[in-house]
Amino acid sequence: MSRKKSFEISKVLDLAINVFWHKGYEGCSMQDLVEQLGLSRSSIYETFGSKEALYLKALERYDIQSKQKLGTILYEQGSAKELLLRYFHEVIEYTRHRSCFMVNASLELAASHQEVYNRVHENMVKNEEAFYQLLERAVQTGEMKETWDLKALAQYLVNIMHGITVTTITAEREMLDNIVRSSLFFLE
Q: How many CB atoms lie within 10 A of CB 56?
C-alpha cells in the first residue's frame, strides 16, 4: 500500500521549473533535484518516474503558466499595437535575465529529443495562432492594411518573441524596448 504524498506536486513542479530553467536539463543532476525540491530520490522516481519525465512535466506546467500570464493579453480588446506592446513588455519582464524556459528547451534538446521537439513545436504553433488572430482583428478594424501576409507576420512575431527572450539575458531595457518598437513597423 502506497503512502499518501506529503507534498503538492504543483509546488514541486514549480521548483523543478526553476532548477531546469537555471541549469538546463543536461546541467541538472539528480542530486540538484533532490536538494532543490526537498524530496528524496525515491520520492522523485516514485512520483515522476525519471528525471526526463519530471523535466517534461515541468515544461508542460511552464507552458500552461506562461500562457495564463502572457497569452491572454493577445485576446483582449484593444488596438493590436497597444496589445503587442503590452505583451512584449510582459515577455521581457517574465524572462528578464534568464530567457524563456521553452526557448532554452528548444536550444538544448529539441534537435535530439522528439518529445521536447513536439512540445516546443506545439507551443510555437499556439503562439503563431494567437498572433494571427490578433492581426486578423487589426485588419478588420482598419488598424492594418489588408496587403500584409498575416501568417508570415504571425511567424515573424513568434521569432521576435524568441529573440527577445534570448536577448533579455544581457541587453539593457532600452535596447529591448527599441527592438519591440521597431518590430511593430507594420502597424505604423
A: 20
Nearest to 93 by CA among 14, 183, 30, 177: 177
Residues 6+ apart with CB under 8 A from 83: 73, 74, 76, 134
Cβ atoms within 10 Å of 23's Cβ, excluding its own: 14
Q: How far apart are CA 175 and CA 10, in angstroms?
A: 35
Q: Would the pTM count as exceeding 0.85?
A: yes
Query: What residues contact residue 46 under an 8 Å CB cut-off, 6+ apart?
Result: 2
Q: Could you list the pLDDT tens digit for every one of the 188 residues in the chain?
A: 455 567 899 999 999 999 999 999 999 999 999 999 999 999 999 999 999 999 999 999 999 999 888 889 999 999 999 999 999 999 999 998 889 999 999 999 999 999 999 999 999 999 999 999 999 999 999 999 989 999 999 999 999 999 999 999 999 999 999 999 999 999 87
Cell of 61: 506546467
For residue 187 the three cell numbers come to 502597424
Which positions ≥6 away from 100 have C-beta within 8 Å? 66, 91, 94, 162, 165, 166
